[in-house]
From TrEMBL:
Matching SUPFAM superfamilies: Clavaminate synthase-like (SSF51197)
InterPro entries named in the record: AlkB-like (IPR027450), AlkB-like_sf (IPR037151), ALKBH4 (IPR032857), Oxoglu/Fe-dep_dioxygenase_dom (IPR005123)
Boundaries of every Fe2OG dioxygenase domain copy: 96-187
Protein name, entry field: 2OG-Fe(II) oxygenase
Top-level division of the source organism's lineage: Bacteria
GO term, biological process aspect, one: demethylation
Lineage: Bacteria, Pseudomonadati, Pseudomonadota, Alphaproteobacteria, Hyphomicrobiales
One Gene Ontology MF term: oxidoreductase activity
């Protein structure tokens, strides 16, 4: 029995480098941000020849799956500046956000298992409108070690270290319309 409890406890431990803050923003700001994001010219997420059901708008940079590299995108809009500054303050002195992704998840839409591209370093995600199950997994021998974070509206998560580089993450189909704003720092690309 002790081995089973230890295994269960291990599967429930949070990935190293994952941070989570509830109520990162006020409800009034959440409503304003949902209005701003929903008014963007959101487009279906493109990855190569495939089209995802979530709709997105990228700022600063976007990853082009056909070319397999970063491409310049529209500059980060001024209405996001105070939020970018708040995320950077939370991230610490060396945090500089270089890319922002605004996403709309309609009812029944999720995102499959993945890791963000290596061009990005730390990832911060602001959840808006509805909660979601933010799932993590990593190989553990013949099985997967798993962890699920209930990402509440107005919460902010940060992935760094192992949670960013070793663990994959996904969001199952959401039960209510959800928006997110993802803030990414850029990886140090030594030549």
């Amino acid at each position: 029995m002790t081995g089973q409890l230890a295994l269960f406890a291990e599967e429930q431990s949070s990935p190293a480098g994952l941070q989570y803050i509830t109520d990162f923003i006020a409800p009034e700001l959440e409503r304003e941000l949902i209005g701003r994001v929903s008014a963007l010219p959101l487009q279906p997420f493109q990855f190569g020849a495939f089209e995802g059901k979530r709709r997105v708008a990228s700022f600063g940079f976007r990853y082009d799956y056909a070319l397999q590299r970063l491409q310049p995108a529209e500059p980060i809009p001024g209405w996001l500046t105070p939020l970018v500054e708040k995320v950077e303050t939370h991230g610490g002195r060396s945090t500089r956000i270089g890319q922002v992704l605004c996403t709309e998840y309609d009812v029944g839409v999720g995102i499959g298992w993945h890791r963000d591209k290596p061009h990005f370093d730390r990832i911060f995600g602001l959840s808006l409108g509805a909660s979601c199950k933010f799932r993590f997994r990593r190989p553990a021998g013949e099985k997967w070690q798993r962890y699920t974070l209930e990402a509440a509206p107005r919460s902010l998560y940060m992935m760094a270290g192992e949670s960013r580089r070793v663990w994959e993450h996904s969001i199952p189909a959401v039960e209510a319309k959800r928006y997110s704003i993802t803030f990414r720092t850029m990886a140090d690309r030594k030549t």
